[in-house]
Design goal:
- The complex is a heterodimer of chains A (548) and B (446).
- Chain A is of the alpha+beta class.
- Chain A is built from ten helices and 18 strands.
- Chain A folds into three domains: 101 residues; 257 residues, no CATH class; 87 residues, no CATH class.
- In chain A, strands 10-18-12-13-14 form a five-stranded antiparallel sheet, with no helix packed on it.
- In chain A, a hairpin with a 3-residue loop joins β15 and β16.
- In chain A, α3 packs antiparallel against α8.
- The model of chain A has no long low-confidence stretch (mean pLDDT 90).
- About 4% of the residues of chain B have low confidence.
- Chain B has a domain of 147 residues.
- The radius of gyration of chain B is 42 Å and the shape is rod-shaped.
- Classes of the chains: A alpha+beta (548), B alpha+beta (446).
- The interface between A and B is large, with 68 and 60 residues.
Chain lengths: 548, 446
């Protein structure tokens, strides 16, 4: 049985326990609006009883954070998806803006206007005004396409800059997490049952921020230290391990036109990042934007080659044969130095609508020439003999070969259409040189070629699998669909993340009503404990006065 | 379920934001008057909208092309109808003048009128449209297609003869006259007599002799400047003696030509000698029944027909080349040459020439009627196409407005959507306000 001083001691312990409880409550109330704060709860327990029978009062065993670790993990990984869709939505909005012909004048209108001018020219082939307008529209079409291409490139550059910036942020966060690992370990290894609640909350907040940028995999060790890894498969690398942070670095990748690649040590993880904002940025930069630019290049290349090929068949006002209308895009021939024969190969575009823009290889073997599409494997060996050598026409390119080839000789043929959208411009500046006439004899009123030029608007192209404008319409639909998907994905993820957040709030959030109730309850307990001390004091007083 | 303070505030704020966004979007749509503002609003519709836009723009362009053609047709047709009038008048005069009761002097007066008709027709043939383009010049729209001012040649192609040709001298004693040594040809209305020596001539020798005598003729050399007449034998095949005589002149005497009348029947003069008229013998030399024509060089246009697209891939010619309508094809008639022949025939009172003019004028009328019929048919086709394209455009606009949500029904929808979203926003504002004012335990603690 405890003596009076024991009672006094019990009162002191109770006072201290309830005071701590009130302190915990006030911490909760203070942090009611702190994002990521988990409410804490004082855990009361009885003090070890005297002789195992008589209770000796109360003590706070620990202050525990009320958290659901499973939910926390879900929220952390949800941030990655949110980050990816968020960045994709924002950028797709920008990309979509470039190709938004629905509301404003864009490439589609420019093509329509251009062909309207061709039609006007065919109505009045000798008209100087019509010729000037056509050149002007050609210039404006080139300008519109170039500007769309420039905007795509500028988005790509912005994305690259952002990737470099985000990697820096990842490194800062990793440092902080490593630091927190160290602090948490030192708090929790003191031997008592204390947990580093606020530090752990901080760490979760940092992990959320980190996960939003790059998907992480987490592994918590015995001592409370966390290992954070990123990447996947053979390219999984540690970002944080215990107290150590391993920073990522960015380098300009010469294999990817100087765009940034992300390294951890020597391991290139650019393509191994599984999710998060960085994954979204890389995907846009390396897949989507190049694909869109490629479409624009193909469209431009088709316009340029078909218009030039047809224009060259016509005649200008001065009777001269038509030249290039747009800056030319021609077939390029290259041959390896190992060729031993003396054959000369002359490739020209014969039918722009049949072009594939793939690469071709002509090889000479067993007295036979074969022309092969390197990409699809389609080939022809139907070379016809002529006065000067051999000739064949394959997929819109006609080939003339003069001289003798040696066994095993190879020739490579390419139409370098890549980057064409950025280079599109007029070759012609003199309105009189527009080749509207179909023959020199029909000048000045002849419009034979102008009519054929005008019909290109409705011509279907193999490389586009549609007309110019049909292809462009499908293309904008594709961009729109992607933007639409990003928006949808983002809003779904936002709903999910909102739901998870609500669930977390439900478990870990601070309720003021609850805290007020606790506060009153702790206050009452504290008041009662104080009364206990007074009572014990009076008891002692009584004992002392008994001697008088 | 534990409800915490942050939950209440967060969910309130989120729904406020969501509703505000929805209102903004509905407002955008209602004020723009359409639902699809960006491709992502409806990727499939936006693809369709672009395709519709292209169709609409093309219809507008084709309509513009057709308007240009219509102008051309109108100008061409009114020029041709005026010319038909002139030809009808010439035809009337020909029928009138063939009557033997008319004196040569009467015919000379009518010749002046024919000349006027010629002038009128040649002016019409050089008509220009509103843009100053020559409508009957084929592709050579910037040049006058018919140039009657410059020196030009007449040409006479005889019927087929075969050498060697025997020239038989005129014998007054021979009752069955088969002589062919005395010829009469007319150049610019000037008669030239040619007498050939008896004997056998090759085609070429015959041509050389006739050419020499015609050019030496005093009558012809009076014209200033002197005409040069070439007479050539053109074999049907190289080296063959079968062929025809071609008589050409570079006569520069005003606007007349070298005309070789088919048969000369001089008007009998009082006290004329009783010898047979010069030139009956020309029949044997293939100089009767040949074709008299302008050599065609006064037409400086070409036979280009300008095709203009009236629908995707459908071109329609808009002009009528002048050589086809005025100079005729292989079976047609050279209207201007005929008029000049007619004029000459009147001046020389050549009855056969006048007779030829009657058939020529008939043919000319048909020739122009045919071309007017072609214009009419093209115009019909144009009108029909225009109406069809217009309907197509209206339908396309309707499809487009449905697709982009700018039709009436969608407008109403957009407005009610806006009102709905505004109501929702007001509701969530109200709720938020309530949440903020909601009493807590604190309100009751004293």
């Amino acid at each position: 049985m405890p003596d009076i001083s024991g009672i006094l001691n019990m009162g002191r312990q109770a006072l201290s326990a309830h005071q701590r409880a009130i302190a915990v409550t006030s911490n909760n109330i203070s942090n009611v609006n702190t994002p990521g704060y988990s409410r804490q709860k004082p855990i009361y327990e009885t003090a070890p009883p005297l002789n195992g029978v008589f209770g000796t009062g109360v003590q706070i065993a620990q202050v525990r954070s009320v958290v659901d670790t499973f939910l926390q993990r879900q929220i952390i990984s949800g941030q990655s998806t949110l980050g990816r869709f968020g960045v994709e939505k924002g950028l797709m909005d920008r990309v979509e803006g470039i190709f938004n012909d629905t509301s404003a004048d864009g490439i589609d209108t420019a093509i329509s206007d251009f062909f309207a001018a061709v039609n006007d020219l065919s109505s009045n082939p000798s008209g100087t005004a019509e010729r000037i307008v056509l050149l002007e529209r050609g210039r404006s079409l080139s300008q519109t396409i170039r500007s769309a291409d420039a905007q795509l490139k500028s988005i790509s550059r912005d994305v690259d800059t952002e990737i470099r910036g985000r990697v820096d942020e990842v490194n800062v966060l990793a440092e902080k997490i490593a630091d927190l690992n160290k602090q948490i370990q030192s708090v929790e290894n003191l031997g008592n049952r204390n947990t580093a609640n606020d530090l752990r909350d901080d760490r979760v907040r940092l992990l959320e921020a980190l996960s939003e940028k790059i998907e992480v995999h987490l592994l918590e060790g015995q001592g409370g230290e966390l290992t954070v890894t990123v990447g996947s498969g053979g390219r999984t690398v540690a970002l944080v391990s215990g107290e150590n942070a391993y920073s990522l670095s960015t380098h300009s990748d010469t294999n990817n036109s100087g765009l940034a690649k992300i390294l951890s040590g020597d391991t290139d993880i650019t393509r191994s990042i599984t999710d998060g904002r960085l994954r979204g940025l890389i995907e846009l930069r390396d897949n989507l934007l190049p694909a869109y630019a490629d479409r624009l290049d193909k469209l431009t290349a088709s316009i340029v080659t078909s218009f030039n090929t047809q224009h060259e068949k016509g005649f200008a006002l001065d009777g001269s044969a038509g030249g290039d209308f747009f800056l030319s895009l021609n077939v390029i021939l290259s041959e390896p130095s190992t060729n031993s024969g003396g054959a000369e190969v002359l490739p020209v575009i014969s039918d722009a609508s049949a072009l594939t823009f793939d690469s071709y290889e002509i090889s000479f073997s067993q007295d036979q020439f074969t022309m092969r599409n390197v990409k699809t494997g389609a080939s022809t060996n139907e070379f016809m003999e002529t006065d000067f050598g051999f000739t064949a026409t394959f997929e819109g390119i006609s080939i003339e070969i003069a001289g003798d080839a040696a066994e095993g000789d190879k020739f490579n043929i390419d139409i370098p259409y890549q980057g064409q959208a950025g280079k599109m411009d007029m070759a012609l500046s003199d309105p009189a040189l527009v080749a509207a006439a179909g023959s020199a004899e029909e000048l000045p009123g002849g419009n034979g070629n102008a009519v054929l030029l005008a019909q290109l608007q409705d011509q279907s192209f193999f490389a586009l699998n549609a007309t110019f404008q049909g292809f462009y319409a499908n293309f904008t639909g594709e961009v729109g669909a992607r933007a639409n998907t990003s928006q949808r994905n983002l809003s779904v993820e936002e709903v999910i993340s909102g739901k998870l957040d609500t669930l977390r709030q439900e478990v870990s959030g601070v309720s003021l009503d609850e805290e007020m109730t606790n506060l009153i309850s702790f206050q009452r307990a504290y008041q009662a404990a104080a009364k206990l001390v007074t009572t014990a004091d009076e008891l002692l007083q009584t004992v002392i006065e008994m001697k008088r | 379920m534990r409800i915490t303070d942050q939950m209440l505030f967060n969910s309130g704020t989120k729904s406020l934001m969501r509703n505000t966004e929805a209102v903004a979007k509905a407002q955008d749509r209602a004020s723009a008057g359409k639902k699809v503002l960006r491709p992502s609003d409806d990727p499939i519709s936006s693809t369709q909208i672009l395709k519709y836009n292209k169709s609409i723009a093309q219809v507008d362009q084709f309509t513009r092309n057709m308007r240009g053609s219509e102008d051309f047709f109108a100008v061409s047709d009114s020029a041709l109808s005026g010319m038909q009038e002139g030809i009808r008048r010439a035809s009337e005069l020909a029928v009138e003048m063939i009557n033997a009761s008319h004196a040569p002097s009467d015919r000379k007066i009518v010749a002046v009128e024919i000349k006027q008709i010629f002038e009128q027709l040649s002016a019409s043939a050089n008509s220009v449209d509103g843009k100053g383009q020559h409508i009957f010049a084929g592709n050579k729209i910037s040049t006058k297609p018919f140039d009657f001012e410059k020196p030009w040649q007449g040409e006479f192609v005889g019927t087929t003869i075969e050498g060697p040709i025997e020239i038989v001298k005129y014998d007054p004693e021979n009752s069955e006259d088969d002589s062919n040594d005395r010829l009469n040809v007319t150049v610019d209305g000037v008669n030239v007599d040619v007498t050939l020596e008896e004997g056998f001539y090759s085609g070429e020798a015959l041509a050389t002799e006739i050419q020499r005598q015609v050019n030496e003729s005093l009558a012809l050399s009076d014209t200033t400047p002197a005409s040069v007449v070439t007479v050539q034998f053109e074999p049907d095949e190289e080296g063959s003696e079968k062929g025809h005589l071609v008589i050409t002149s570079d006569a520069v005497k005003g606007r007349s030509s070298v005309v070789f009348n088919k048969v000369v029947q001089p008007i009998p003069e009082p006290n004329a000698p009783t010898k047979p008229p010069l030139g009956d013998a020309r029949l044997k030399l293939g100089l009767v029944g040949g074709k008299s024509q302008l050599s065609g060089e006064e037409y400086v246009g070409d036979n280009g027909e300008m095709q203009v697209l009236i629908e995707p891939g459908v071109p329609l010619a808009r002009n009528i080349p002048g050589n086809r309508v005025f100079k005729g094809g292989p079976d047609g008639v050279d209207i201007f040459a005929s008029l000049i022949n007619f004029q000459t025939a009147l001046e020389t009172s050549n009855i056969v020439g006048i007779q030829t003019a009657i058939t020529d004028m008939e043919k000319a009328t048909d020739q122009i009627s045919n071309e007017r019929a072609i214009i009419g048919a093209r115009l019909n086709r144009l009108e029909e196409t225009k109406a069809r394209l217009e309907n197509f455009k209206l339908a396309t606009i309707e499809f487009k407005s449905k697709e982009e949500g700018s039709d009436d029904a969608s407008q109403v929808e957009a407005f009610s959507e806006l009102i709905q979203q505004q109501t929702a926003l007001q509701a969530s504002l109200l709720v938020q306000a309530r949440i903020l004012q909601q009493p807590t335990l604190l309100s009751f603690l004293r």
